[in-house]
Amino acid sequence: MTTSTGPAPGTAPANEAPLTLDQPTPRVLSGWDQGTFWANLGVSLLGFSGVLVVLDPLGTGRPTLSFAAAVTASVVGTLIGTFALGLAAITGARTGAPSMVLLRGLFGAKASYLPTVLNVLQMVGWAVFELVVISTGLKILARQVFGEPGPGWLYVLVAGAVTTALTLRPLGALRVIRRYVTVAVVLAILYLGWDLAGRGVPMEGGSWKDFWFATDSVIAVSISWLPLVADYARHSRSEKEAFGGLVVGQTLAGIAGSVLGVAALAMIAFDSTDPYKVFDPFTATGVGVVCFGVLVLREVDQSFANVYSTAVSAQNLLPRADRRVLCLISGALATGLALLVDMDSFAGFLYLIGAVFIPMFAVLVVDFFVLGGHRDWDVSEQAPTRWVMLLPWALGFATYQLIAPTGIAGWSDAWAWLQGAVGLTVQPWMSASLLSFAVAALTTLAVGRGHRSRHRTGTG
């Protein structure tokens, strides 16, 4: 008589993420697991430096928003973006499918390859940015402690290696975050907030004129997580725990992180030429250095999430590929690119992500929740192509670009020309995020209802 002492060859442990798409998905994450994980993702050093876009949404090189307007934009943008993430978590928990596989039910198996490729590109991009921020944070710490930071490439390699190692046992990494990391992060945030508040916020002037442009940038930060939400929500024990854990954790941490970033930029009188100067107020005291160190080490869960979701997204294209191999490839790619990239294109990258995924989410929400798609959502490799659903996505993307063209040479010029051709004058009240969502949602209602009905009856 023999007894089993571990998983069968070629399979993951019962409490770990499956190795391939055709293996069962364990439902082992509680609301507390989800909440602590998303709370950690909501506090990002990259987000602190990205607050430059909140204070100066039009890239003028000076703060155009008042401190109160910037804080309000941070709160409003986080609430809108987090609620969207919560709805996405429900779809993942209900279907048990990762994000890009979930899109088979929206666009069809073959058509889902397009957003999958886009998502792989953006996940690699975010992982690169995170590794750059982590290595920069480690250099700052080394300078504070030892006086000499040493070679930057060494920090990138260390951050990349740790990140990739975590992706091999992703649910185990979430448990480590829940048990050990979250408490340290909460204490660090509380101290840094108390320290900055005690020194006052010297920023003066500014207005509310560009409030919605700033809010769009905050929404884009939250929405950037949208294409990977289901990768983790599919492991939730219930839809309620998936939604509640994400919304509570991400909202509280996202608002705290954004407000802290705005306050830190105000302390240095807004230096738009060096996004890393935002960290100077954090390291002004010995305790601050320790707290900053906690945030630097915690940043690895951001790069972990991006590298892991790059691999899981790629499985939509290669369903029987071992995710561990894909994680090693995506981790090595992100690490290599991090040795070469700079942060100058961050704002444009951020807006482009919002332009792509906000209207796509609108199409998904309407089709899944409003048109009843959740009753027969097909995530199989034989899911029929629904080309018509690409139309509302495209129109939403065009709406976003007309209002806030992505700052890429040639690209933004083309959209500026189109603005003139259609006689559009962008007003301060126009939110690219909300208007592109509305256009995509209404178009989905118009074209999707009949198509969904024909799909169920097999007549179209």
From TrEMBL:
<feature type="transmembrane region" description="Helical">
    <location>
        <begin position="67"/>
        <end position="90"/>
    </location>
</feature>
<dbReference type="Pfam" id="PF02133">
    <property type="entry name" value="Transp_cyt_pur"/>
</dbReference>
<feature type="transmembrane region" description="Helical">
    <location>
        <begin position="111"/>
        <end position="132"/>
    </location>
</feature>
<keyword id="KW-0472">Membrane</keyword>
<feature type="transmembrane region" description="Helical">
    <location>
        <begin position="349"/>
        <end position="370"/>
    </location>
</feature>
<feature type="transmembrane region" description="Helical">
    <location>
        <begin position="211"/>
        <end position="230"/>
    </location>
</feature>
<feature type="transmembrane region" description="Helical">
    <location>
        <begin position="325"/>
        <end position="343"/>
    </location>
</feature>
<feature type="transmembrane region" description="Helical">
    <location>
        <begin position="390"/>
        <end position="409"/>
    </location>
</feature>
<feature type="transmembrane region" description="Helical">
    <location>
        <begin position="180"/>
        <end position="199"/>
    </location>
</feature>
<feature type="transmembrane region" description="Helical">
    <location>
        <begin position="429"/>
        <end position="448"/>
    </location>
</feature>
<keyword id="KW-0812">Transmembrane</keyword>
<dbReference type="InterPro" id="IPR030191">
    <property type="entry name" value="CodB"/>
</dbReference>
<protein>
    <submittedName>
        <fullName>Purine-cytosine permease family protein</fullName>
    </submittedName>
</protein>
<dbReference type="InterPro" id="IPR001248">
    <property type="entry name" value="Pur-cyt_permease"/>
</dbReference>
<feature type="transmembrane region" description="Helical">
    <location>
        <begin position="37"/>
        <end position="55"/>
    </location>
</feature>
<feature type="transmembrane region" description="Helical">
    <location>
        <begin position="152"/>
        <end position="168"/>
    </location>
</feature>
<feature type="region of interest" description="Disordered">
    <location>
        <begin position="1"/>
        <end position="25"/>
    </location>
</feature>
<feature type="transmembrane region" description="Helical">
    <location>
        <begin position="282"/>
        <end position="300"/>
    </location>
</feature>
<keyword id="KW-1133">Transmembrane helix</keyword>
<feature type="transmembrane region" description="Helical">
    <location>
        <begin position="242"/>
        <end position="270"/>
    </location>
</feature>
<comment type="similarity">
    <text>Belongs to the purine-cytosine permease (2.A.39) family.</text>
</comment>
<feature type="compositionally biased region" description="Low complexity">
    <location>
        <begin position="1"/>
        <end position="18"/>
    </location>
</feature>
